[in-house]
Design a protein that fits this description.
By secondary structure, the protein is of the alpha+beta class. It is 22% helix and 28% strand.
């Protein structure tokens, strides 16, 4: 009974959305109205992500690069400096990625196996970045994805690989041009298979699993982060890599809880040689705050460096007048993410909370 099959899939999906509402009333969630409102929006955003990732763009025979996180879908401390692109793949096939480099500072390409819909992991099966790939004089490039070694720019997979993630990282969005990139299966003779009830039902099952797992995962991360208020500790990098982190990045996840007259001062004692670094302000749900309208992130290019080579950053609810001020966008409490990108000798940032009256004139 195909009609009954698809009806059951839809009803199960709706039930999954309804059950997710319990996240909003978890005792660990801050009780202010802004966090509650953003939580409701977060549940809707993750529903859109689930449908896009696992229903709309879930055909490895005819993959499409789409944006899994952007201005209105945010998850897991999404980087405001990044243009994220993702495609579903299958390690049994070969693919060709073609692009024009543009002027953006850094691009990384990673294949992985596992997903938040399956086992909470995304284990890297291959990695390349713009510092290592061969680029033609006209700025074009080609990368082959295959489980078998290939000449030229080869991005490895294994037979279990199921995802390609591209991170394009800006230093200055207003000045740099992103790369134009596309993906195509190497076997251009392949013909699309008509959508079946079994396929769409399986896709909805994955979408539901992703929705449940992702919301639960990031809620647990936030609860763990809140255990150390007003700090910015280094996280377990093996864990970060297991859930899909870039191997060129060192990740810190922290917390802020500030009254209106308080400032969180974050200091980089020095800046070692690196591709870049950045700090961002996120809400409790681990969404980057709205960088379209607020200054909520800073990086190697945009930061003002002190005379002694250190960098001091102010995180506060109201503008402190400091050149490296970051806004909490009205939040009393939230999370933070700091990254060293391509850094061989990282230095841990330090934090302290001061009163506005403690600022030098």
């Amino acid at each position: 009974m195909p009609n009954q099959d698809v009806t059951a899939s839809w009803e199960a999906f709706c039930d999954t959305l309804k059950a997710a509402g319990k996240e909003l009333t978890d005792p660990a969630v801050p009780t202010d109205s802004q966090t509650k409102a953003e939580g409701l929006r977060y549940l809707s955003r993750m529903a859109r992500a689930a449908l896009e990732w696992y229903v709309e763009f879930n055909d490895p025979e005819f993959p499409v690069l789409y944006r899994p996180a952007h201005e209105t879908i945010k998850l897991g401390a999404d980087n405001p400096d990044n243009l994220y692109q993702k495609a579903v793949i299958d390690g049994r096939f070969d693919y060709v990625v073609r692009g024009e480099r543009g002027s953006i500072d850094y691009i990384s390409f990673a294949t992985s196996k596992g997903s938040y819909a399956e086992n909470f992991t995304q284990i890297e099966t291959g990695f390349l970045d713009s510092n290592t790939i061969d680029i033609n004089e006209d700025g074009t490039f080609e990368v082959v994805l295959s489980s078998r070694e290939q000449p030229g720019n080869w991005l490895p997979m294994d037979e279990a690989s199921e995802s390609l993630l591209i991170r394009q990282t800006y230093l200055d969005r207003s000045q740099e041009t992103a790369a134009t990139i596309s993906i195509q299966r190497a076997d251009t003779t392949a013909v699309p298979t008509p959508l079946s009830v079994d396929t769409i039902s399986a896709n909805f099952e994955k979408a539901m699993a992703f929705y449940r797992n992702t919301i639960g995962l990031f809620s647990r991360w936030s609860q763990q982060i809140r255990e150390n208020p007003n700090s910015l500790p280094l996280w377990d990098q093996s864990f970060c890599q297991a859930v899909g982190g870039d191997p060129n990045i060192l990740y810190y996840h922290g917390h802020f809880r500030l009254q209106s007259d308080e400032i969180m001062v974050i200091t980089l004692p020095s800046v070692p040689n690196c591709q870049t670094w950045n700090l961002q302000v996120d809400n409790y749900w681990m969404e980057s705050l709205d960088y379209r309208y607020e200054k909520i992130s800073i990086n190697k290019h945009t930061a003002t460096v002190d005379a002694d080579g250190s960098v001091t950053i102010h995180v506060a609810r109201e503008n402190t007048g400091h050149p490296n001020y970051l806004s909490t966008a009205g939040h009393t409490e939230g999370t933070l993410c700091f990254r060293w990108v391509g850094c061989a000798d990282p230095i841990n940032p330090t934090t302290e909370v001061i009163k506005r009256g403690g600022l030098s004139a």
